[in-house]
């Protein structure tokens, strides 16, 4: 064969690799097309009130696999696999993902269960076989023909990598869950968010205060730019009526308080232009459990910030004013000033 017609061995190898990549990409697209068509046909007959068949669920999961571009899974997570990063990932999860996947990430939330197909159990083998980069792509871009939305405009790249670290640290289904079991999801949804799925890592869960909105008022307050209503559960109210803590006795275990803050505003339309509640700011929570919170005076504390623009709650953090740590003791330092009153500032208002 003439020399000019021969192809250099190195170039031939490169061309073969290129053809292989093109063939793999084409195969990837063809498989995606077939699965999408089959899934679309199946889901036409799957009403929201029906439980998806195993075939429908399997196809939906397969669609997630082939949707991920080949190159997307080759990236490296730039964040270290530390407890701090995992904890921050959990905070992102509880604020954005728990309403569908449940507080324990196993898909056991009312909204997620009623999706077609249902929201995935993130501790499952199918999810856990994706690497961090593949999880990153799914979170950022979503998956067509499922309820998984694209979070690119809402969750930053950095927070998405944190989420990937958190998901890969979830306990497997055959192990005991590390978090409190998911409560019943019958409470009314607040702006498409079930606030009772929120939980402070190693601390209070919002669900422990289910129904606080109708608790009796202990007192009201106006401090700086905020007004507040301090509410108490029956155990707390009965303790106050028994003259605790004025009689020197501590509040009993099970006593709970919720302090609802609103940004203060002046209502010029009312006589005397009173200061009244404006937009909601946050909810502060306290529960007495002398064994669980022995190292913080027997009380557990939690702060859940409300964001009017989104209509959702989130965990308090160190960027808030005042800053809030992600643990059950976030209010302990402040409340030590009233240790003699069993760490409770608020007196029961006469009525």
Automatic annotation (TrEMBL):
Residue ranges of domain Cytochrome c in the record: 84-171
Database matches in Pfam families: Cytochrome_CBB3, Cytochrome_P460
Coiled coil regions in record: none
Gene3D superfamilies referenced in this protein's UniProt entry, alphabetically: Cytochrome c-like domain, Cytochrome P460
Keywords assigned by UniProt, alphabetized: Heme, Iron, Metal-binding
Domain of life where this protein originates: Bacteria
CDD domains reported in the protein's UniProt record: cyt_P460_Mc-like
GO molecular function terms noted in the UniProt entry: electron transfer activity; heme binding; metal ion binding
Protein name as catalogued: Mono/diheme cytochrome c family protein
Species in which this protein is naturally found: Tunturiibacter lichenicola
């Amino acid at each position: 064969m003439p020399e000019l017609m021969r192809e250099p061995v190195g170039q031939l190898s490169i061309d073969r690799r290129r053809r292989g990549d093109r063939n793999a990409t084409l195969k990837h697209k063809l498989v995606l097309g077939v699965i999408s068509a089959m899934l679309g046909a199946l889901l036409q007959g799957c009403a929201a009130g029906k439980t998806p068949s195993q075939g429908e669920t399997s196809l939906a999961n397969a669609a997630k696999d082939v949707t991920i571009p080949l190159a997307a899974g080759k990236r490296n997570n730039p964040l270290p696999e530390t407890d701090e990063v995992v904890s921050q990932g959990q905070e992102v999860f509880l604020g954005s993902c728990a309403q569908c996947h449940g507080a324990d990430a196993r898909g056991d939330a009312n909204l997620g269960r009623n999706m077609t197909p249902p929201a995935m159990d993130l501790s499952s083998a199918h999810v856990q076989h994706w690497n961090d980069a593949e999880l990153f792509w799914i979170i950022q871009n979503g998956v067509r023909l499922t309820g998984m939305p694209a979070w690119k405009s809402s969750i930053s790249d950095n927070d998405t990598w944190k989420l990937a670290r958190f998901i890969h640290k979830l306990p497997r289904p055959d192990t005991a869950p590390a978090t409190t079991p998911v409560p019943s999801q019958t409470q009314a949804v607040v702006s498409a968010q079930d606030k009772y799925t929120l939980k402070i890592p190693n601390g209070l869960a919002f669900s422990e205060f289910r129904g606080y909105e109708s608790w009796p008022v202990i007192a009201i307050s106006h401090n700086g730019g905020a007004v507040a209503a301090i509410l108490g559960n029956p155990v707390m109210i009965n303790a106050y009526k028994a003259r605790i803590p004025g009689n020197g006795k501590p509040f009993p275990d099970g006593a709970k308080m919720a302090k609802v803050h609103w940004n203060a505003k002046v209502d010029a339309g009312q006589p005397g232009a009173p200061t009244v509640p404006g937009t909601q700011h946050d909810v502060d929570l306290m529960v007495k459990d002398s064994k669980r919170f022995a190292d913080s005076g027997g009380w557990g504390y939690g702060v859940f910030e409300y964001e009017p623009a989104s209509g959702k709650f989130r965990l308090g953090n160190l960027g808030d004013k005042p800053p809030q740590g992600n643990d059950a003791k976030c209010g302990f330092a402040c409340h030590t000033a009233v240790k003699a009153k069993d760490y409770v500032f608020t007196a029961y208002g006469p009525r």
